[in-house]
Amino acid sequence: QPKLNGRDFLTLADFSKAELNFMLNLAQHLKKQRKLGREEQPLKGKTLGMIFEKSSTRTRVSFEAGIYQLGGTGLFLSSKDLQIGRGEPVADTAKVLSGYLDGIMIRTYSQSLVEQLAENATIPVINGLTDDYHPCQVLADMLTIQETKGSLKGVKIAYIGDGNNMAHSLMIGSAIMGMDISVASPKGFEPDEAITKKAVDLANQSSVVVTNDPVEAVANADVIYTDVWASMGQEEEQKAREEIFANFQVNDYLVAHAHSDYTFMHCLPAHRGEEVTASIIDGKHSVVFQEAENRLHAQKALMVALMG
Ligand code: CP
Ligand code: NVA
């Protein structure tokens, strides 16, 4: 059994295939127990603080319900209301919160702020989304792919759209777990070069491809994944991005190039008529609500592994 207790979860790159597999198996187990009405409470008496500097539906509710189901308590902490919003140093905040809590989940802009929080906290810190990464989402996505495709090995993911936090975590996660991934983005919106290099370095049995051609990326894909064209914090770029990304819509024409039994995935929230048509996201290949539910099970496994 891998040693995960006390660790931070800032990026998937910090974890081995065996460690991620351990969490995925635990997630499967917890999901089954919940469906059977036989839940255990391994985090009885533990408290998770959840700092949010950006909006959230899934991350907030799945972490809060999840810690509660495990026997613990979740505290929603808006960064606007914390002293951090008035300039209290992150390091001081980390040291103070470490005295009260058993774990911290944070959603913010800067990955380095999350790293600073983790360096100064003596309790596990979980990245609930930054501009660079969304590792909790990809943990749930791996669970979903396992459920729909039977295993991760040999699966090809096509990610169509912005080379953003989702693209980055999918690339890193795929590389570690041995899935092939092709990312298609408009020129100038490709994934970060250093993160792409990291994914390529991590991949030993699978491929990491970055292209500007969505048709090339989707060819023979088992999973087609997309995300919003304008992420949180990029709202003022919405109009410009609608033009730039127009050829990167996941629609009936594009998916015709994938395997006939492809699965459609999206982290949500989605914008029908922009990055994906209703025919696809509401169609029979879509698993987006199973994927959203799996946030709960995957993060419960994560919390048990780190905080248990
Ligand atoms: N996918 C996801 O993280 O959703 P929220 O922004 O609603 O948390
Ligand atoms: N890329 C999106 C993901 C939302 C879950 C964003 O950062 O807003």
What does this entry show, briefly?
With 308 residues, the chain is an alpha/beta fold. The protein has two domains: 12-133 and 295-307, Aspartate/ornithine carbamoyltransferase (Rossmann fold, 3-Layer(aba) Sandwich), CATH 3.40.50; 135-291, Aspartate/ornithine carbamoyltransferase (Rossmann fold). The protein is built from twelve helices and nine strands.
Describe the 3D structure.
The chain is α/β, with parallel strands linked by helices. It has 2 domains: 12-133 and 295-307, Aspartate/ornithine carbamoyltransferase (Rossmann fold, 3-Layer(aba) Sandwich); 135-291, Aspartate/ornithine carbamoyltransferase (Rossmann fold), CATH 3.40.50.1370. The protein is 42% helix and 14% strand. The chain is built from 12 helices and 9 strands. It starts with 16 loop residues before the first helix and ends with a helix. The model has no long low-confidence stretch (mean pLDDT 98). The structure holds phosphoric acid mono(formamide)ester and norvaline. Phosphoric acid mono(formamide)ester binds next to α2.
